[in-house]
Amino acid sequence: MLERPDGGNLLDTARDVLLKELLPHLPEAQRFHARMVANAMAVARREFVTDPAPALAALRTATGAPAGATDDLLQRLAGEIRTGTHDPGTASHATVAAALLALTRLRCGVSAPKALGKAG
């Protein structure tokens, strides 16, 4: 963070203004769109404060993947899953499954926290 308010604080403030001050004055036909914008802002805020590095590091360790771009890691993993490299009964299955679960929870916490029983 370079200065306050940071991007997360600005998103919080803008979303609050949108929902509390602007939304009540919009015609009904535009309220849905305003709520979509507010939801997008909430997702962006959660993404702003989420650090995927530990989950991705666990996945790299579990798969033995070298450091590199996240997309490369996920593409490599998808290929390994298709070929059965991490199937049940393999040495890597438990660690890869645990790492994928952690990554899934992280991603769900950003995009759909209510699915995890968290407040949005």
UniProtKB/TrEMBL annotation:
InterPro entries: DUF6285
Source domain of life: Bacteria
Domain DUF6285, residue spans: 24-114
Protein name as annotated: DUF6285 domain-containing protein
Organism name: Dankookia rubra
